[in-house]
Design a protein that fits this description.
mainly alpha, 2 helices, about 0% strand
């Protein structure tokens, strides 16, 4: 196996790994957003049940306070994941460009090899 073939395999592996990372981040963001939505529903139900919607009220439900804090943490986590997602997408684009260059080099080398064989036979 030539050095260029190894380079090409490595570039393909990097692209696959970066795609997997992007997909994983998307799944995590979707899951956190779903969980935050469920917590919103639970908070609203608890507020309706207690009749108190003012979070500063002394009798505001403890469960609703805890759910709000958890929801806020999830929303902050989604924001952090968005930043990671942008970095992962940039990294993926760089890996794809590297793969494209490696494929072009491989095609050029294989074309030159075919030409050498053709001229050697003639």
């Amino acid at each position: 196996m030539s050095k260029r073939e190894n380079l090409l395999r490595l570039a393909r592996f990097k692209v696959a790994e970066k795609r997997r990372q992007v997909d994983q981040l998307q799944l995590m963001m979707a899951e956190f957003e779903r969980m935050a939505t469920e917590l919103d529903v639970q908070i609203n139900n608890e507020e309706k049940r207690s009749g108190i919607t003012d979070t500063t009220h002394f009798a505001y439900p403890t469960f609703a306070k805890a759910a709000r804090a958890r929801r806020d943490n999830l929303v902050n986590s989604v924001g952090d994941l968005r930043i990671q997602m942008n970095a992962a997408r940039i990294s993926l684009e760089e890996a794809e460009a590297e793969l494209s260059n490696a494929e072009k080099l491989e095609q050029r080398d294989s074309g030159a090899e075919v030409e050498r064989r053709g001229s050697a036979v003639a």
